[in-house]
Amino acid sequence: MAIRTRHDLLSYHTGIKSEMLSRASKLVSAVTNFPVQYNKAIVGRNAFAHESGIHQDGVLKNTETYEIMTPESVGVSKSSLVMGKHSGRAAFKSKLKELGYSLGDNAMEDAFNRFKALADRKKHIYDEDIEALVDEGVAHMNDAVKVTALTVIAGTMGPQTATLTLDIDGQSKTVQAVGNGPVDATFNAIKQLLPNNARLALYQVHAVTEGTDAQAEVSVRLEEEGRAVTGRSADPDTLVASARAYVAALNKLVVKRQKTAQAQQAF
Length: 267
What we know:
Layout: H1 2-5, H2 21-32, H3 53-61, H4 89-99, H5 105-121, H6 127-139, E1 145-153, E2 160-168, E3 171-179, H7 182-193, E4 199-207, E5 216-224, E6 227-235, H8 238-266
Antiparallel strand pairs: 1-2, 2-3, 4-5, 5-6
């Protein structure tokens, strides 16, 4: 982008389609299960956001005052389409296309239903909310184990208690566990239903958008006998997102175990 924006001083060309930078960054973030920092240059959410009064006034008068490159040049849309619980399928499909998604009929219907459910819980739906919602649906579509229900009792009077229901290969199983905090109780409940010796190497929570009703995006990394897997999930309830991220990591761990076993049998 430095070469592109300073073409008057630098007589070089890279041939890179800079309009794909934002989408490429989001793809890498989804694959690696690590969010892009808000203040990240060019592809960060705040790269083209202006909060202070003097910045807003300057940009309104001339965008070049604080923007040496246009949002469009890196693939950031300036669409004013507002998504909410009254939005229909046509608007939702248009928004997905704008964000770079192309889903089949079944995946589209599933994503739309989850979008409507989210819209009932959140007043404002941002592009990042929709991206997290679609990415999670695609990533966990074929998981053998899924979180069906979670109830957590927490507060100053411990120990905290979690009641969890998992769908394991089509069978519903429920268990109750306690722990040193709501997250610990939730993970202990998962371990009762899915016994494992994996070590929790990373537990990271990141807000997808601003506001007290923002979706929490949770990343969980598990390590077992030299194998490392990462699961990620997003939900307005941090504990639900935590449970789903942990289960997602366990699903990946099971797949890695099977591949290792098959490789050993082959030899």
